[in-house]
Amino acid sequence: MADLSLKHIYKVYPNGTKAVNDFNMQINDKEFIVFVGPSGCGKSTTLRMIAGLEDITAGELKIGGEVVNGLEPKDRDIAMVFQNYALYPHMTIYENIAFGLRMRKMPKDEIDKKVKEAAEILGITDYLKRKPKEMSGGQRQRVALGRAIVRDPKVMLLDEPLSNLDAKLRTQMRSEIVKLHRKLQTTFIYVTHDQTEAMTMGTRIVVMKDGFIKQVDTPKNLYKYPANKFVAGFIGTPQMNFFEGTLKKDGDVVHIEFKNSDAKITVPYSMLMKTTPAYLDGTKPVCIGFRPEDISLDPEKIEKAHATIKVKVSHTEELGTETLVYGDINMQGNGFDDTGTRIIIKSEGFDEYAADQICDAALNIADIHLFDAETEESILPRIPEFNYIDCSVKGRAISALDVDIALPPAIVCAEGSGELLIPPVAVTFDGDIPATVVEQEDINGQNLVTLDVNGKRLYALSDGVLAEKEQKIALDFKRLTIKTGGKEVAPMPEINGLDGTFAMERVSEPVTKDGKTKNKKVAKYYILMDGVKFPAPDDIANKMFAALSGRKVFNTQFRYELPPDGLAIADEGISAEVKAYLDYGRDKYIQCAVGEENIYVRCDKEYSGTVKLYPDLEKVSVIEKDRGIRILKFIYFSL
Ligand code: ADP
């Protein structure tokens, strides 16, 4: 098995460059993974860390289930192909391919068999006696591939292997590498800055920028569901059209206004229900994206469209099967400069458009993309952040989705009407509100369920596919935001944070050796939270040392994070002042203060005064504050 697990991988170069930040990914056996992104985004550094050519600053890398952070490249069972083929000029092609195997002292006849097999696969059998200088670029890259495949590696790493080749040869070699992957049945990791290469080769693609993963997904999902404006703009040619604007929800419709243009459209809210509610008040600037193929000048489509806008044509580019129409949605714009109102439309056929002609264009709202104007993250995610539901509160009951629900004691909200923000995870399938399953969709391993509750749509997440169409649901009140009577009740935080350090003590312990027992000094490691010492499990201590070698680890400030069920009330531990008892019905918590920190602890009993909190270090996440490195993360599954 050659699966790879990359957990919280960081690379900080000695000069302080943070080349890779919190890289997390599970790569399955036999996948073809492509790392793509602009130059300097950290693709090669990540690949070189996998190869063992660069040290990993923090994080854990496993190949085939084994932690390889400390293993030499030669012991990792990987092979790497570089952009510059790195062939030995004085050796023949045969000798170049055989070289690595000879160094491993493989028997001669076995080497011969392997070299010939590889040459056959790569179509270079006739060239084995030549020297590299007698070969073309494409042939040399085949030799480099040959040298990698004779080693039967568990993982093939390829760093921009085709960028020295001309366009035509690149296209040809691209399909040969895909074919090779199928034949070899090993895991491939391929680095490129070329989005077309990435889209045509990868089973999954990792899009990177400035050392961060921006999205990991299949080519189709990257194209259809970009998680941010960067991915939206990076994938697809011509690039997606981006416009600034605002969204305003008004009952069952949403008005979309385009900045610096008279363009305004109104679409049914049902088409934009996954939009994060905070953007629907008509004031927050958003970035509106439409791919050139999702805008049409076809009169038939315009007639049926939910929304049309006016476009002033500037010029066209004939591409044979299609025409690119450039224009502006600002009637004073020129359609050449990328000003935020320029529009590019992919039009099928050969209709002629004159300069300055004003046309109607149909927008395919089903494929609209919406991003935060500043953070550039999608505000129309596949799994919506919230369900946005009208509600009203009277006494101890809240009325929403045409049902009256008793408020749990922990919720103290104002009377009156308002809104309820329900994240999909806050809908549980163990209640008494009848709901009908309308649709279920697997989104990267999570099951998004669209429910109908009294004619209203509600998104939920379930643990696996639901077999029954009729369900009984409940709301997890600690996760809701309730805005009524001009006041807001926020959800309970899901993570507690405490500052602290890491320490060592040498203690005398009896150690038995050769039948004799002697007292010896043994090192013990501790996590200190709010100044209180807790013995650190070995795996935590090892990770702390891996991230901060030597004594540095004892002089570093950490932030420790724990979920509310990762702290328990005990006889000893961190002193905390109880502030409130929060009864959410099924779950009960105490809210307490540790110094300046507000801490939530799951507990079934009411407490008052001072209590002691003991952490469950199996559930701790560790962050190194200075460099902002997450050394350890507890994955808190909320379902
Ligand atoms: P990519 O492969 O995406 O072009 P790299 O992984 O080569 O990017 O580089 C990521 C960042 O790390 C860049 O800012 C680069 O300048 C920096 N970098 C790469 N190698 C070193 C090094 N040996 N020392 C310091 N900085 C480096």
Describe the structure in your own words.
There is one protein chain. The mean pLDDT is 91. 16% of the residues lie in helices and 43% in strands. Helix 2 (93-103) packs across helix 3 (108-122), helix 2 (93-103) packs parallel to helix 4 and helix 3 crosses helix 4 (137-149). It starts with a strand and ends in a 7-residue tail after the last strand. The strands form eight sheets. Strands 6-7-8-3-9-10 form a six-stranded mixed β-sheet, with helices on both faces. Strands 23-22-21-24-29-30 form a six-stranded antiparallel β-sheet, with no helix packed on it. Strands 33-32-31-34-40-41 form a six-stranded antiparallel β-sheet, with helices on one face. The protein has 639 residues and is of the alpha+beta class. The chain is flat, with a radius of gyration of 30 Å. It contains ten helices and 41 strands. Residues 13, 15, 17, 19, 37, 39-45 line the site of adenosine-5'-diphosphate.
Overall helicity: 10-25%
- Characterize the biggest β-sheet: 6 strands, mixed
Return residue spans where pLDDT drops below 50 for at least 5 consecutive residues: none
Query: Structural class of the helices, strands and pairings?
Result: alpha+beta
Cα(first) to Cα(last) distance is: 30 Å
Shape: flat
Estimate the mean pLDDT confidence. 91
User: Taking strands numbered 1, 2, ... along the chain, how are they ordered across the largest sheet?
Assistant: 6-7-8-3-9-10
Number of strands: 41
Figure out the total of helices.
10
In angstroms, what is the radius of gyration?
30 Å
Write a compact overview of the structure shown:
16% of the residues lie in helices and 43% in strands. It is built from ten helices and 41 strands. Adenosine-5'-diphosphate (ADP) binds at residues 13, 15, 17, 19, 37, 39-45.
